[in-house]
Amino acid sequence: MRNQRVGFLLGLIFAVGLVVQCNGGVTSTYRRRLEASGDMPLDADVFWVPSGYNAPQQVHITQGDYDGTAVIVSWVTADVPGSSTVKYWKFCSNLNHSAEGDVRQYKFYNYTSGYIHHCVLNNLEPDTTYYYAIGENDAGRKFSFKIPPALGPDVPYTFGLIGDLGQTYDSNITLTHYKANKDAAALLYVGDFSYADNYPNHDNVRWDTWGRFIETSAAYQPWIWTVGNHEIDFVPEIGETTPFKPVRNRYPTPYEASGSTEPYFYSIRRASAHIIVLASYSAYGKYTPQYQWLQKELTKVNRTVTPWLIVLLHSPWYNSYNYHYMEGETMRVQFEAWMVQYKVDVVFAGHVHAYERSHRISNIDYNITNAKCSPVPNNNAPVYITIGDGGNIEGLATNMTEPQPNYSVFREASFGHAIFDIKNRTHAYYTWHRNQDGDAVTADSMWFTNRYFNPTNDS
Ligand SMILES: [Fe+2]
């Protein structure tokens, strides 16, 4: 009898094991339309050019230092250089400040850019709303932003997430939905901006329309930039051999503040988060500048000050769609062990035009002779989220590898955006919002527990 019971129990354990092993997560079939929508026409209302002679346009801000008390204000004037001055003041204060920026132009084949201004506002007060004014005479424009609270382990802060946005009708839905979320205070952007490179000679007019398109959000809250392949703009056949020329001129990052030597890999600290931005299209092999910088940067992370360690990159390391399959593999091989060693909470990527979330897994034991090359559950590993579903001109990635890998919790080919809502040092609530639903509807969600302060099995 006892042997029968033991046998039954062993059988049950084996059966449950099979169910767990075979459970590759959920592949959602929810989607409304698979055709890519075209880019909005040049005269679309969202590409509105502000009135007035030489009026500032394409206004956007990003974090300007390591800890979030500086802001870089950027804009374009079309007719003449004009002023690079930013006037700014605190909410309910008569004390005006001003800062002087610089202005530049660039040429790309037969295109000449407008006058691109960048101005850094330094030493701003934490947890404070500022107004800022740019432009001259009757063409002046005013905007505002809020500096985050001072760094601290329990500072609540809400980040938005968008990737691969482009400028189609679907892109417009994504951005409109994102803006409807009033709690999101800064956007983590995981690469592929305008998709101007889909046009003949990479028509940079589409960089201008994209700048006007995102202004309604990016002029009021910082967008933290990660570069993607659509920012490379390497076109030797038309003589354009300097990679990243448009993005480098238009969208600055505070890379020097974190000791980086390239604008495309850097890190910032904001509220209770330490955010590391990696460059999928800069060298990352051993001894390269990015490798050396990341090795050093990870030792600077102080989880008692910023408990949430977030990594952004463009080409995903874990991707079970057939699109861009394995493109992120070499970077994963190079850096994944560090993600586990330093207990990164989450890695966000774009590139694949769909959505996917993983369990906490790692694949770091392989040494070319031991055959240990399958991802395994690892409570010290990050969750990997692909959110390249902003809605660009190339359409959705719909073909998936089958069966769904065990490590993939949820995947769906729909456009959308996400919110990472940090509550305190132990918990953050993550939600993904598909475009077809109302703003408040979540199609995927997860309570994150912090890997440093509360490393429960949360995935
Ligand atoms: Fe991409």
From TrEMBL:
Catalytic activity: a phosphate monoester + H2O = an alcohol + phosphate
Enzyme class: hydrolase
GO MF entry, a single one: acid phosphatase activity
Enzyme Commission number(s): 3.1.3.2
Claim: Zinc is one of the keywords in the record: yes
Keywords for this protein: Glycoprotein, Hydrolase, Iron, Metal-binding, Signal, Zinc
Ranges of residues in domain Purple acid phosphatase C-terminal: 381-440
Domain Purple acid phosphatase N-terminal: 56-146
Pfam families attached to this UniProt entry: Metallophos (PF00149), Metallophos_C (PF14008), Pur_ac_phosph_N (PF16656)
Gene3D superfamilies per the UniProt record, alphabetical: 3.60.21.10, Purple acid phosphatase-like, N-terminal (2.60.40.380)
Signal peptide stretch: 1-24
CDD domains: FN3 (cd00063), MPP_PAPs (cd00839)
All copies of domain Calcineurin-like phosphoesterase, residue ranges: 158-355
Family named by the database record: Belongs to the metallophosphoesterase superfamily. Purple acid phosphatase family.
Designated name of the protein: Purple acid phosphatase
Originating species: Rhynchospora breviuscula
